[in-house]
Amino acid sequence: MKRYSAFAIAREAFRQHSGWTRAWGQAEPKPRYDVIIVGAGGHGLATAYYLGKNFGITNVAVLEKGWLGGGNTGRNTTIIRSNYLQDPSAAIYEKARSLYEGLSQDLNYNVMFSPRGVMMLAQTQHEIRGYQRTVHANNLQGVTTEWISPARVKELCPIMNIDGPRYPVLGALWQARGGTARHDAVAWGYARACADMGMDIIQQCEVTGVTTEAGKVTGVNTTRGDIKCGKLGMVVAGHASVLAQKAGFHLPIESVALQALVSEPIKPCMDVVVMANTVHGYMSQSDKGEMVIGGGTDGYNNYTQRGSFHHIEETVRALVETFPIVGRLKMLRQWGGIVDVTGDRSPILSKTPVEGIFVNCGWGTGGFKAIPGSGWAMAELMAKGASPLTEEFSMNRFRHGKFIDESVAAGVAH
């Protein structure tokens, strides 16, 4: 009698789950879809999900040249917040944060949302003024944030040294309902929900060209054959400019690497997320006990997805003063992701010069926190041709000079 391991039995049971072939990249592409979404990351899958849920559009294919959630969705530090300065930014990020609160119930999949709170440290007088201004703006926008004292900062995060000789902590912008979620689970939850609606998610399927006729999109060329479509959504983060060129237009974005690392697991010592923009670093503790550490983007354009020594040195050196505990830890692993950055540090959710093509890009280093709101807004834009959440994020804003400047509110982590 043949014996099977517990893993093999579980794998076979999972294979027989309805929608498995679609959700995990085994479906063969159909000749034509109503909508094709390029990019099976969080934003692309969320767009597909809300097209089906909110508008009943289910003849959808999500194409991915790699594997599901293998891009920036699986490479970020999972921070969720909505304390942005400008009204359009606050609206879409707060929509995302509120959707995160009920996402596990909505998808019937535990995304491990943890509203542990996010604080952004003020370590200069300039930051005090900037964050207090943001608190007032957030109150007008209906986003709950507050300015807290150094004593309150220390109470919320006892391991922090608030009396640093160079950059003492002078207070913080605090969003109690911000937090984190499990990045892989967000992608998997959306993927399973899309599969259950009959959508096809096709991995190892790279788009090599875009076909048009009389200025309107007609389909895509892929490594698994040509596919026709009525509408095309480009949601590929750092490769957005590359894909746009295949369709014959240019995007005002640059691609750079963003690196992060985690320490060896330790006992729970920090139950909030802390961003220290002056010293250029941010940190939280994962459910497994690792200290999740991130910093700024590389100083030059590139498409690499690996770490480098200079990032470890710069980021950890900055955090050691504010968090002395970091100096005693060993690094467990390090990675990089390709982020797409616009001039005003705000995203692009827009129609394009080619009729039927829509683009979602330019999230910089803050894309994960926006996934549900971005998908909701992008689905509405593709289905109805307009959305109040995307109106200000059109490509045309760069032509008309109507920038949504978030370079200050974004800080190191955008």
Q: Any descriptors?
A:
alpha/beta; 414 residues; disordered N terminus; globular; eight-stranded mixed sheet; disordered C terminus; 32% helix; 26% strand
State the helix count: 13
Structural class, by secondary structure, is alpha/beta
End-to-end distance = 58 Å
Gross morphology? globular
The biggest beta sheet reads: 8 strands, mixed
Number of strands: 18
Low-confidence stretches: 1-21, 410-414
Helicity range of the residues?
25-40%
What does this protein look like?
The protein is 32% helix and 26% strand. The chain contains 13 helices and 18 strands. The chain has helices at residues 6-15, 20-23, 42-55, 87-101, 103-107, 125-141, 150-156, 183-196, 240-247, 309-322, 371-384, 396-400, 407-410; strands spanning 32-38, 60-63, 79-80, 118-122, 146-148, 171-175, 179-180, 200-202, 207-213, 216-222, 225-234, 253-263, 273-276, 281-285, 291-301, 331-342, 348-351, 357-361. α3 (42-55) runs parallel beside α8 (183-196) and α4 (87-101) crosses α11.
Task: Provide a quick synopsis of the model.
The protein is of the alpha/beta class and 414 residues long.
Write the layout of secondary structure elements.
Layout: H1 6-15, H2 20-23, E1 32-38, H3 42-55, E2 60-63, E3 79-80, H4 87-101, H5 103-107, E4 118-122, H6 125-141, E5 146-148, H7 150-156, E6 171-175, E7 179-180, H8 183-196, E8 200-202, E9 207-213, E10 216-222, E11 225-234, H9 240-247, E12 253-263, E13 273-276, E14 281-285, E15 291-301, H10 309-322, E16 331-342, E17 348-351, E18 357-361, H11 371-384, H12 396-400, H13 407-410
Helix pairs in contact: 3-8, 3-11, 4-11
